[in-house]
Write a structure and sequence with these properties.
Keywords: Coiled coil. This protein is mainly alpha-helical. The protein is 97% helix and 0% strand.
């Protein structure tokens, strides 16, 4: 009987270790997903800022080119 008790105890320990491993894995996955969402949000912000800067400097370039053209025509 003590052999059976030991087998049950070992199996119980393995099952609880597996359950802990699955729980830890789920926590790691959730943390990774949260980090991915945060990085995607930051990337969207950076893309938006980049586009705003490009638009601003394209407009400034257009204005300066028009001024140069006006000066050359004088």
């Amino acid at each position: 009987m003590s052999g059976e008790s030991g087998d049950i105890s070992d199996q119980s320990l393995r099952m609880s270790a597996t359950a802990r491993g699955l729980a830890a894995s789920a926590e790691i996955r959730a943390a990774a997903e949260q980090q991915i969402l945060k990085l995607q949000t930051e990337l969207d912000i950076v893309h938006r800022q980049k586009n705003e800067i490009e638009t601003k400097y394209r407009e400034e370039t257009r204005i300066l080119e028009a001024q140069i053209k006006d000066e050359q025509e004088k």
